[in-house]
Amino acid sequence: MTTVKIYIVYYSLHGHVETMAREVQRGANTVQAVEATLWQVPETLSDVILQKMRASSKADDVAEISPEQLLEADGFIFGFPSRFGVMAAQFKAFFDATHPIWETQALAGKPAGIFWSTGFHGGGQELTALTAITQLAHHGMIFVPLGYTFGSGMFEMNEVKGGSSYGSGTFAADGSREPTELELQQAFHQGKYVAEIARKLKGHPK
Known about the structure:
seven-stranded mixed beta sheet; 7 strands; globular
């Protein structure tokens, strides 16, 4: 059986997106014939600025990805923090560097999901997802939203929960809040769900 490669590509400043990414990976790897790999996009800020922002240390077990490595994957799940309703500049810079791939449309037809972290309710939980879809569209990638496949967890009203029908998400607040168990469950579900879609698109039977 041919291996279906899912690349989970993320940027994380304070660790929230990294935590979500690891759960997305766990979910994806539960799907038969799927191999899910974590990747980080390159940092664009200096060490001095990162120190002033109290940034977390980068995961030493996750390699940096270059744009051309995207060609190796059968599907993607991209994760990033929000900055004023759009993906962080580090991730946008990575997408900007994919111009040679865009010219050949080599990623067209490949499935992709997205997940994110915002500070608060008004920080772009849905807008960040909507603006990110433009990157996928220009590459011809197939956006895979969660819809309401997460079931009752989508309708939780008794606790603060990030995410939406566009994908999984979390709230960082001032940086001290960590992803909740429910948010991590949704991230796990997203990884599994997108991996299942990628597996079908590659021609594997259900």
